[in-house]
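Could you join me in thinking about how sequence relates to backbone shape in a protein? To get us started, please write out a protein record for me. Would you write everything just below, so we can both look at the same thing?
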Amino acid sequence: SSDVCSSDLLQKLITTVPLYGTNYTDSFVSDPYPADYMNYSSMYVMAKNDCCPPRNIIVYMVDKADLYVILRDENKKPSFEWGETVAIMAGNEFTIYTNGEFSVSSVDLTYYRAPIAISFPGCIDISTGLATPDVPCEFKDDVAEIIVDQAVAILAADIESFNQYSRANTSVQTNT
């Protein structure tokens, strides 16, 4: 398949790191997530309460807009007994809700990292004005070709859309 978003092609971008933060009365708020973070995959959360040893809690990522409805719903709110909770991502941190029933012991965040930016020797980096070093593409050649083909298709569509916009805009100006 030539689908760039195929999970097989993106496996090398998956990274798992510990995520530290602070427990509050009804939630755990993480420190900022890693700088190379691109997209959420999953969390492995260990939690504990006063009477039970640490255990894994399943985390469902939810939209912030839905959060307060979920927290009030008896069937969806965080529960240590059922081993489930919800989390949101806001800004550059995660908030895992505990409903005051447990505290978070550890979090392992699995995410898709941003790919390493490629550069070619002798080119000028427009942001620094300096010559760029040789940084090869981290993907295999066949995957890199698929990515370039998709980028060309997107660019061609954008250029065509711009040309159509320009023609339509010119027509409007001539007809007024």
About this structure: The chain is about 25% helix and 30% strand. The chain has a mean pLDDT of 85. The longest strand covers residues 37-48. The longest helix spans residues 141-175.
